[in-house]
Amino acid sequence: MKRSSPFNFKWPCSLIEQSVRAMPLLVLLMFASAQSLLADATAPVAYWGFGNEESTRLESHGGVHRDVAGPRAPEYPGFSENNTAVQLDGKGARFTFDDPGTKSSFDFTNGDEITMEAWVKVDQINNGENVYVIGKGRTGNPGFGVNNQNWSLRICMIEGRARISFLFSTVPQPDGAASSDANWHRWISEHGFARGKEWHHIAIAYRFGEPESLLGVIDGQQVTGNWDVGGPTRNIPTTDNDAIWIGSALKGSASNSFRGGLDEVSIHRQALSAETLKSRYQGPNQKLLAGPLPAVMPELGDLPKDVVQLSFHEGMPSHLRWLNEGESIPQETLRWQTNSFLLDQFPQRYDSWGIRENWKAPVLVRMAADVPLTQGEHRLLMRVRGLSRLWVEGELIAKSVPIKRAQNGFEEITPPAEPPKPGLRIAEHRQQEIFGEFIASDERKYRVVLEMLIGGSNFRTDPGETCVAIETADGSSYVLLQSDSEQERHLDDQTVKSMLAQQNIERIKFDDQRRRIAAKSQEDFWNKRHEQASLWAEQNPAPAIPEPFKEHHPIDAFLKAKSQSALEASSKTPLKEAEQFHSNVLPILSDHCFRCHGEKTQGGLKLNSLEVAQAGGDSGLPAIEPGDSHESEMLRRIRSDSPEERMPPGGAGLSDEQISTLENWINRGANWPAPPVSPKDVATLPLVSDAAFIRRVYLDTVGVIPSDNEVRIFLKDESSDKRTQLIDRLLTDDRWADHWTSYWQDLLAENPTLINASLNTTGPFRWYIYDSFRDNKPFDRFVTELILLRGSAHEGGSAGFGIASNNDAPFAAKGQIVSTAFLGIELQCARCHDSPYHETTQQDLYALAAMFEQKSVTVPSSSRVPPAFFEDKLRESLIQVTLKPGEPVKPVWPFAEVTGSYDDESLAKLMYHPEDSREKLAALITSPQNLRFAEVIVNRVWRRFIGAGIVEPPHDWEGQTPSHPELLKWLARDFITHGYDIKHLAKLILTSQVYQREAIGYPNTISPAKQFFVAPNRRRMSAEQVVDSLCVAAGKPLDVEEITFAPEAGDLSKRRLTLGVADRAWKFANLANERDRPSLSLPRARAIADIMEAFGWKGARQSPITDRESDPNVLQPGVLQNSDASVLLTRASIDSGLAEAAVTATSPDQLVETLFLKILSREPTEAERAPLASLLTEGFQNRLLPKEEWKEVKPLEPLPVVTWSNHVQPESNSIALEMEKRAKAGPPPDPRLRVEWREVYEDVVWSIVNVSEFVWIP
Fold first, then answer.
1. pTM score, whole prediction
2. Domain segments of the chain: what residues?
3. What is the DSSP letter of 1184?
4. 494 - beta bridge partners?
5. Which CATH class is domain 308-519?
6. 3-state per-residue secondary structure call for 136-167
7. Rounded to whole angstroms, how far apart are CA atoms 286 and 217?
8. Per-residue pLDDT reduced to its tens digit, 394-448
9. H or E segment at 446?
């Protein structure tokens, strides 16, 4: 035996010969009946010693390691010196075995007794987690309910102590409570142990039906506890034949999986006595009720001069208390510096790849500095959100209480805080304000330390506006505490806002640096991948740049070559004949035949050229017989009266006129000429003016119009390469990321919600997109890390992409998104059936879903076509379902032939974990062999800049022909060889002549044969560009509320999200508050969203969006002319660029010119300048008021804050109405300007903004 047995029983004789060691359960079950096992009442029905010679039929799953060191003598004298145990890594690692059947030894009902015990070593468990030692039911196995917890022994982490827990469910009562928790019953001990290297014996004994019988023992000490959830019960427990699992539950849920060592696990059908269970433990005396450590100011050593040092320690035991005996401060995670005791946002937490991750809350934050103080008494102010304490020179002078959980709407409305002195800034909603005194013995520097616990198991890791301030010597004010005494910074609104804005800039720089350092950990891997990609590109070279045009830009060379060849081909057919075919015949074929018989070959037949049509399809009959329409199978099928034969299928078929047109064409010889092209069709347009170019390239790169000063500088620059210099400068501008984020939000269906999840709600992975473009991440890496779902799902990691709430096949939704975004394969119809007009099948989509989910999947019943649909059909339905109901779909790559990317041995070089199907999916999409991937991305970028794609539509390539296939291939190879660098690709397009020509209005529906790209299409600004450019023109930032309904951080991000304060329009989201609650509103943000929605933006993206609604509508001029936001943005308000332009203008003419440069990026014509200057002339010389006449701008009285926590209170509606009233009023006008002249000036500004030219990209 491993140790002397603690059980006073004899094994059945048939087992003695099997093993002299601890007996595994399934061996017992093989040779002994339940009756024989119960012959000795103290015998366990299951016992595992996990010895190194143990023979067992337990099935292990995941990270299970045998023969690791267990509890050993002499520290644990009941064990041998070489005792072994098992180690579980979590993440679903477990042992499993099946229940023997009905009325087995593992079935318990009222009156039955159970004892569960084990030795455990807990390596890792987070606050709030409940991990399984052993349990029956709640496995997630098919055929069993989700609430079938027969019994379980668990460990839960509360306030930094690992406590034992007993959980089971009961049979629902007919007249029971409606609550979903009513049938759940959980007992948790009041005391526990600290996680670490020590082994602990835990045990729970219970008689079902008698809640008062529960007995808990930890390390030889009886522990008390409490019932919660459904409370104590005498109802009958759940009993079924689900499996018994050791170490996990819930399909292997990571947060329910044990991480650490296990030994001596056993189950008894007897409630063992307290004395028996206490005697099990022989080992170090463990203190279960640890007292608090003495409160002492931390020793931080030497601090840097003239700054405040911040250190962050994540994973504190509890947000409710400081450390207890036996606990220690977690290792420092991060260190930062700022200039004062002021903080409103943490630096970002990143994973090892540089992707946003959650802070492991609670986080201990220490702000420390050596602060100069004069001799005498000082009064300090501390504003904090949660449990905090303020130290000065070792003396505790102020402390606060823990943060409280937010209530679900019924929290009392609290009045705004009073300022500590008149005119000073008030504390934020639910920030605690505490005062303390300190007496300085002499004038010198004193060590000041603020310790705070931020976040927790049910709280967002958000410090709120935290500060420490000190009362001035004259008692009239408070100034922020800082190490540098040269400048006093008063605690007033203007100073604090300015300092927070500057701190935000410094924090972003700090985050950028840390993120990029972390991302470098993967650079060797990606460099090797890009070397392999370049090698592949060399072996598979791009088409050569057309010889006659090699002196041109490569893009222009390919365009010119096609134009020339099209002219030559067109000249071979009389113009009239070619026009008749392409205007009358080809549209019929294209509209009615090509969908199934273009690039797609339904029935083996293609009809997109005469040659393939003559070849026929599977029938062997020629579809078109030139000169004889009666021998043309296509015409016979078109004329057929049979629903089974008639083409096109469905509907009324072709009209008599259309049939006659085709018949006449065939009888005349079915000539299929090249498209008619005239020199006019391919004539290039002149280059745009410098003024138009700078506006266009600013909007296309950084998403906003240039400032008036930027336009002036560019127009005055006489350098021959100034356009290239400007492009280079803009490609290094951080605003590049702002512009591209919104595009990929649409394509990837980013859909966060501020309140409760709805259909296809995702996490806010916008931040992953933004960070990637900010760092110019290679695009293959961007896609790979997106698909791998890394980082925080609810605070900006790519894992947020993996969420699709209220969707019973979330990864099928993700499969559709990645296939359209990156492969140009449309799978929308394949959700429920095979695509009727595509080659793709339902199996294809669910194979992608299985690769995402890393296991086989089945189609949910909600995504199946009902069998009744196929009954009583006169002809075969276009809709087919080839996947059988309930048939598992394996994680296999379905698009090898379409993409050229094959799942073979060479793929392993592109992966860390070749066995991981999700990583394999990413590698198959982004490998250089995947011709479709690079070409789709190139096409998307081209379309974004030129206005039409080389392939249209960009998300659905099946059956589509590129207008310039050689150019597309050349750009794709160039993209690959330059490391999938989007900026390199952008520069290539932006420096071409085609991009810089005057825009024209070609439709996207032009046929590929007649698409010559002689100039870019004229494009309207996106909604984001309109809003952001209005702000640039007005010279004022976006001024909106924090995009959240829970600013107090009283809940987790996954339930109550914050998207921060938007300074660019892409940072908005759906502002709906679920039930149109009038009390939950963000009126300033709503006003901006109204403009964006009129221009096609959608806050809720339940599906990917390739093209927004772009047709003009009456709302667009309406919102620019009369919406609250546009009226306020055109006001000469205080601190605005418009007001400053009016104040500093030297003449009406100069002011009009400045306005045109600000708003339209060009100088006015004389016809535009004269009337507007005339309006401004009257009163211009006297427009400025003397300083003594300036009206003081008094701040508005602060309002109580309405959040999700208190929005149900009656007064919340009236507060919301007042907020809306103030939002409509907007900021006050600049007091320096005379009212009468200012109003005329604002009318002039408004009129220029409402020129239709403003919303168009030149």
1. 0.85
2. 16-279, 308-519, 568-667, 1023-1257
3. B
4. none
5. mainly beta
6. ECCCCCCCCCCCCCCEEEEEEEECCEEEEEEE
7. 12
8. 999 999 999 998 888 889 999 999 999 999 999 999 999 999 999 999 999 999 9
9. strand 444-454
